[in-house]
Amino acid sequence: MFPEQKLGYTYEEYKVTADWLLANTEHRPLIAIICGSGLGGLAEILKDQKVFSYSDIPNFPQSTVHGHAGRLVFGTLKGKSCVCMQGRFHLYEGYPIWKVTFPIRIFRLLGVETTIVTNAAGGLNEDYKVGDIMLIKDHLNMPGFAGNNPLVGPNDERFGLRFPCMSDAYDSDLRKLAKTVARDLGYSEFLKEGVYCVLGGPSFETIAECSMLKRLGADAVGMSTVHEVIVARHCGMRVFGLSLITNKAVMDYNSESKANHEEVLQTGRERASQLEKMISRLIEGIEPNNNNVC
Ligand SMILES: O=P(O)(O)O[C@H]1O[C@H](CO)[C@@H](O)[C@H]1O
Ligand SMILES: Nc1nc2[nH]cnc2c(=O)[nH]1
């Protein structure tokens, strides 16, 4: 007989972590931000910070990837209370998918209404350049096709429905707002909108894989985000997502370029200040939702 496999945390385990955070900070965030690879500087937009190392938070997984600091930063932006993950979790780190998405339900229990997900991604769309910012309008969940979905296992109705809808995963009003913000900042030239595809990683894609993903309708490819978005939508949070195109996916057998994590982090550093400005303005424009689930 195989030992019984744990399929997730219990509601009580989520509560222990959320209650510990509520007891250790006065912040009551309505907005959460997840920083992608090399984008941890986004947390610097928050004032009156209260910072926790993941290692100090009960039940929290640890960051193991270069460019993911492993800190939870609470703070305010123009009077709005926010929480920011400097470091996310990925399947390729060896975490089961329910650990990868653990912080999302914690955010919900803290009272978060809107989650902003960011990531570094390879551009598959030929019109994309390195440094472009892609608003995510939809996703392709490749691990999900193989049964690795974060909602697998018993459903806890206290979080959400057994069969949540995903056709409206990325909030269209927030995307509209982001386009207005980008236009006002003079960023329209490098703003794109497209479909993000998640793969398990950690190896980057082969040329044949890139060509397949492009034909399937993906504009950018990465190793994160989608699992978080599914859990956030399951528990009724609004989601806004963006990908920084850190490298162009290699599509040509004669190409000399090779995807690498250093290039990913370097592009993040180069676009950091524009991303900070854009997300700050976006957050300024997000209206509270009276904790209504949507
Ligand atoms: O998705 P984020 O965490 O931004 O990071 C992306 O960049 C890393 C590869 O360089 C992978 O972890 C990929 O998912
Ligand atoms: N899978 C994948 N993840 C990335 N993250 C940043 N760039 C890439 C890429 O080209 N492929």
TrEMBL record:
Pfam families: PNP_UDP_1. The keyword Metal-binding does not apply. It comes from Acipenser oxyrinchus oxyrinchus. This is Purine nucleoside phosphorylase. CDD domains: PNP-EcPNPII_like. A purine D-ribonucleoside binds at residues 205, 247. Pathway: Purine metabolism; purine nucleoside salvage. Keywords: Glycosyltransferase, Purine salvage, Transferase. The purine nucleoside phosphorylases catalyze the phosphorolytic breakdown of the N-glycosidic bond in the beta-(deoxy)ribonucleoside molecules, with the formation of the corresponding free purine bases and pentose-1-phosphate. Catalyzes the phosphorolytic breakdown of the N-glycosidic bond in the beta-(deoxy)ribonucleoside molecules, with the formation of the corresponding free purine bases and pentose-1-phosphate. Preferentially acts on 6-oxopurine nucleosides including inosine and guanosine. The keyword Glycosyltransferase applies. Belongs to the PNP/MTAP phosphorylase family. Gene3D superfamilies: Nucleoside phosphorylase domain. GO terms for biological process: purine ribonucleoside salvage. The lineage of its organism: Eukaryota, Metazoa, Chordata, Craniata, Vertebrata. Its EC number is 2.4.2.1. GO terms for molecular function: purine-nucleoside phosphorylase activity. It catalyses: guanosine + phosphate = alpha-D-ribose 1-phosphate + guanine; 2'-deoxyinosine + phosphate = 2-deoxy-alpha-D-ribose 1-phosphate + hypoxanthine; 2'-deoxyguanosine + phosphate = 2-deoxy-alpha-D-ribose 1-phosphate + guanine; inosine + phosphate = alpha-D-ribose 1-phosphate + hypoxanthine. GO terms for cellular component: cytoplasm. Residues 31-284 form the Nucleoside phosphorylase domain. Transmembrane segments: none annotated. Phosphate binds at residues 37, 68, 88-90, 120, 224.
